[in-house]
Amino acid sequence: MKVEPKTLPGFMELLPKDQILFNQYMDIIKEVYEQYGFLPIDTPNIELSEILLAKAGGETEKQIYRFKKGDNDLALRFDLTVPTAKFVAMYYNDIKFPFKRYQIGRVYRGEKPQQGRFREFYQTDIDIIGDGELSIINDAEIQSIMYVLFKKMNIGKFTIHMNNRKVLNGYMSYLELSDKSVEILRIIDKINKIGIQEVENEIIELGIDKDKASSILKFITINGNCKSVIDQLKKLQIDNEMFIEGVNELETVAKYMNAFNVDEGYYCIDLKISRGLDYYTGTVFEAYLDDYEDFPSLFGGGRYENLAQNYTDRKLPGVGVGMGITRLFYALQKFGIIKAEKKSIAKVLVMCMNDEYEKCIYISNKLIEKNIPTQIYYEDKKIKAKFKYVDNLEIPYVILIGEDEIKNNVYTLRDMKTGEQISLNEDALIEKLV
Amino acid sequence: MKVEPKTLPGFMELLPKDQILFNQYMDIIKEVYEQYGFLPIDTPNIELSEILLAKAGGETEKQIYRFKKGDNDLALRFDLTVPTAKFVAMYYNDIKFPFKRYQIGRVYRGEKPQQGRFREFYQTDIDIIGDGELSIINDAEIQSIMYVLFKKMNIGKFTIHMNNRKVLNGYMSYLELSDKSVEILRIIDKINKIGIQEVENEIIELGIDKDKASSILKFITINGNCKSVIDQLKKLQIDNEMFIEGVNELETVAKYMNAFNVDEGYYCIDLKISRGLDYYTGTVFEAYLDDYEDFPSLFGGGRYENLAQNYTDRKLPGVGVGMGITRLFYALQKFGIIKAEKKSIAKVLVMCMNDEYEKCIYISNKLIEKNIPTQIYYEDKKIKAKFKYVDNLEIPYVILIGEDEIKNNVYTLRDMKTGEQISLNEDALIEKLV
Asked: Which of A70, A383, B24, B137 is the residue whose CA sits 20 to 30 A from A320?
């Protein structure tokens, strides 16, 4: 009896041509992270549930894949932050701080599968973690790295929206709304979905008077270039220590973004950004493609005071950024921003016109030594079928070897795009293909 | 309350220095596979249990990580072969055959954790899958690729032991022992563990008479170079079609191993090799390091007639090879064959001697543009602490930038190995570090 072959909904599985493209982006990501000195770690997909759920609650507990194996209560990681916190607490003595680390791996969230949402997806994070303290310049560096990365990805104009939680919380404190700050920020977070008017309504529904609600709305919609926004914030002359610290941090980060050569058109201060996660305490940022309104955020991150507080008493502040590669890749293809262009990795296919494969193998070895990806076709098919294979995989070149080629010690090279066929000796062939 | 940070036994988790080394091997593996035109696929870690257990029984069912999520009966993959079979059956119409594919990913087996055995480990497979038929030359190619790969890994002298199931089964049939063939091969498979004498004893215990047992022992211990073994097999003049086919296949594979430039010292015909998996039907092979008796096999594989028979009626024969990278890496470190040599990815650390980071950032940007991994140290520490960080991470170079350097528009470069410090302008600095 046959079992029907199928893949679970919410699990991405790509055909090779798309996988090639996906892997190209993975390679760019890794390359950029390593150029800035980030070190790789690779924690397990499975951890003890008590580790993963040390802090979590609500949605996480509902979505997590949790199961027993023997006596162990296990779960699949739902992000890379919690395993990293465990890692840093566990190997504290072996780690040198500031610890720059990157991780790329699959994470699991059993949410309702819907377009663009995945239950298994590749996540990638970079974090710079300090022991006790960490310079604010790191907050600029980490955003500049993402700028460099997304410029390299070449997927169009984007903007990093940055803010500082201290500015928001300081302002709420100044308005004597600290006790409602979390709820207010949660409402503001929805502004792109529900609009300004509805944000004001919901804030008023919290029992906040109209004047304050209107001040908040005016405050979060302050705009202009970085210098102008910082000037406007300073002019408010808000006498609150946290607010002033936050504005200074924003100013410093903006100054260093500039030093990092981040084009001013690619970032802005956006006081509406607060990031849902309540562990962020300073800088926060999110990035969006400019020309696609419905496109999900490209990446997001920020500064936190205490990475590993569930596992250790040590204060380990850091700044990090995460992105969901699977979701990003899905959206990039869906919006037509990227398209698979290579169906094969082989640059050349060697085709034997008689049954003497030795010369085919000989030249294939030579080409591979020169790092030219090469495939030999061994199957006993008609020449038409062989060329159909080459056409289907869009392999750029074919080397034909038959009796004449063996006799004259040459190779016939066919350029599949132009159809041109030339006869070359070994050296000329290699030179042509390198 | 704090949760004690820990990692599950049987789950490899490496410090960055070891992870850097691990990733280097992963990169070599991928690079070699791609040079031979293998296409990447990346199936999910989770599949429906009915897919993964379509054939399995015994050990697999016991070891598999299986759990419910909602109404779904799910499991973590325990190898990459079953998901590949599913993939090929499912996307048959989109795949071009012969399908050369590689996959690298984590697989899960809940066996007793013991030294060198892992519950979560990276597996990598390459397979060449035909539609209906597949040339025997592929059996040589796939072994030659592993030869090239392990030569590149540079971990010492190894030998590929190859055999053909048709030779073994044909010989058993000739001895009229076909009905006991599976049990006999299972006993032979243990020969390196239990020794020749015990193999003979166990075969006799199956109720096989002493003469036949002794013939089997004599047969499986035939040795010499490939040509000699094939000559000895032919001289036996065994009148069994399957046996003759097997010997011819062995001869053809050996001939092409030679064409592929596989050094004759690196492979042999070993009639004791049968591979446990009963889906192999022709060529089988395993490889071992020569100088380490207890070292586990490096890789193993073979030819099968029917990859996806649990999911489709189509006949999809193939030849493949798999290896457990995690176990291999563990053993290579344990036996002292490889050792982490890089604690950092950064080649240079930029150190600021005052509080003006602009010049540090400027030169860091320039170096990164030239693909020189560069890290800036931003923390407010004493110079001694900064150099301790560099020493701990063994970063090869430090660039020092203070007032003098800014005034004279130069950089002070310190070679951490020699302690030598030189003053360079921008161009000379870049040239020195490229």
From this structure: B24
> Does B96 sit within 8 Å of A393, measured CB to CB?
yes
Rounded mean pLDDT, A216-233: 97
**pLDDT score at A297:** 94
Residue the block writes with tokens 């973590």: B76
Q: For A168, phi and psi rounded to 5 degrees?
A: -65, -50
CA A187 centroid distance within chain: 26
For residue A257, give both structure tokens.
């973004």
Put simply, whether B392 touches A (Cβ < 8 Å) is: yes
Distance CA A397, CA A416 (A): 6
Q: What is the CB neighbour count within 10 angstroms for residue B157? A: 11
Interface of A with B in 26-55 (CB under 8 A): 34-48, 50-51, 54
Q: Please state, in angstroms and rounded to a whole number, the distance separating the CA atoms of residues B123 and B336.
A: 22
- Taking the CA of residue A156 and the nearest CA in chain B, the distance in Å comes to 20
Ordered strands of the A120-129 beta sheet: A39-40, A99-108, A120-129, A318-324, A299-304, A280-289, A158-164, A267-269
Q: Are A157 and A228 in contact (CB under 8 A)?
A: no
Both tokens of A174, joined, read 């100044």
CB contact under 8 A, A7 and B91: no
- Restricting to A residues 231-290, those with a Cβ less than 8 Å away from any Cβ of B are 256, 259-261
DSSP state at residue A265: G
| A164 three-class SS | strand
**Cα–Cα dist A243/A235, whole Å:** 12
Instruction: Please give the Cα distance from B286 to B93 (Å, whole number).
Output: 33
Which residue ranges in chain B fall short of pLDDT 50? none
Q: Give the max Cα distance, chain A.
A: 94
Find, among A81, A133, A98, the residue nearest to A322 by Cα.
A81
Residue A112: its pLDDT value, please?
82
Packing angle, helices B16-35 and B325-334, rounded to 10: 130
Sequence letter at residue B19 = Q
A411 in B contact zone (CB under 8 Å) = no
Specify the pTM.
Answer: 0.96
